[in-house]
Amino acid sequence: MLHPVIRTALCGSLFVAAFVFAAEPQRYPSEQGQVLVKPIVEGLENPWALAFLPDGKRMLVTERPGHLRLVGLDGSLSEPLGGVPEVFARAQGGLLDVQLSPDFATDRLVYLSYAEAGEQGMAGTAVGRGRLSEDLTRLEDFEVIFRQQPKLSNGIHFGSRLVFDREGYLFIALGENNQRPTAQDLGKLQGKVVRLRPDGTVPRDNPFVGQQGARPEIWSYGHRNQQGAALNPWSGVLWTHEHGPRGGDEINIPQAGKNYGWPLATHGINYSMLPIPEARGKTAEGTEPPYHVWAKSPAISGMAFYDADRFPAWQHSLFIGALVDQSLIRLQLDNDRIVGEERLLKELGARIRDVRVGPDGYLYLLTDAGNGRLLQVGLQAR
């Protein structure tokens, strides 16, 4: 049992509660040795995503009900920061991903994705940015730079993950709001990966710029509910993953203008056990097959490539959180080929919402619960 020592302090106008866990890391088996899990903070309300600040000791963490908090590796947990937009906090909706500007050291911009309310009780994904104040208490001058149109969600399938590539373009991986045909409709932003400049304007070389009836923001289409995205550190190419229905969770490497099949092609069926009405099979002419697929859905969320030096046995691994399977999935890579899979931390019994590699080479996980936790994960190799 964990016995936290709880400290409180007042830092400027920001109240901080510190949860310092005295227990030794818990140990769990793996193919490479023992996985070490150390709780950093608990008491988070359905945390969704994290982003490390440049000092490597603190991070921003989103909570789905609409809070953005500052968390320290010393266990400090801030009160909610000000200046965060109002969110549609219903079912799967709320405050979702967080990403720092590539130029954060000079512009201090923080990007957030979130569910935004529209008319008649419907909602869609929005992305905005604000400047983190010098005293770390609020986002200043927050502005919306992207809105998913039209707003079609009654509370599910918002996506969404944010990734900057090496050229500074912003990719947004979106869900299809559980409105299946929209993923194939180039006039709608559901079920798409979009590509923007950091200010939300559209790059001229996006694949559908100038095409009548198509949204110029679109990079790729035919996606279902994307809850993982990361830039491959060796190739510089975007990878995403998405939930299938009952079966058929998949990884894709989205290419400009390509169609990734949903709902025309899927390895899954409806939750009712009936076929997907629009599906033509596991493949469909004119669509790209998934790069990797799980016949039985782990319910994947979060994605991180491991390229740190701290744990050599994890080099060239892709880590993915699993909600239903309650595990951390490790995929072993040989260049871009997936050559092995391992399920870790099932003994925790926790829904893993996000996974990131910290500047210190440890993995950091968020567990999806009303009393969610931030966990530091390392490896004691054989």
From TrEMBL:
<feature type="signal peptide">
    <location>
        <begin position="1"/>
        <end position="22"/>
    </location>
</feature>
<dbReference type="Pfam" id="PF07995">
    <property type="entry name" value="GSDH"/>
</dbReference>
<dbReference type="InterPro" id="IPR012938">
    <property type="entry name" value="Glc/Sorbosone_DH"/>
</dbReference>
<dbReference type="InterPro" id="IPR011042">
    <property type="entry name" value="6-blade_b-propeller_TolB-like"/>
</dbReference>
<dbReference type="InterPro" id="IPR011041">
    <property type="entry name" value="Quinoprot_gluc/sorb_DH_b-prop"/>
</dbReference>
<feature type="domain" description="Glucose/Sorbosone dehydrogenase">
    <location>
        <begin position="44"/>
        <end position="375"/>
    </location>
</feature>
<keyword id="KW-0732">Signal</keyword>
<protein>
    <submittedName>
        <fullName>Oxidoreductase</fullName>
    </submittedName>
</protein>
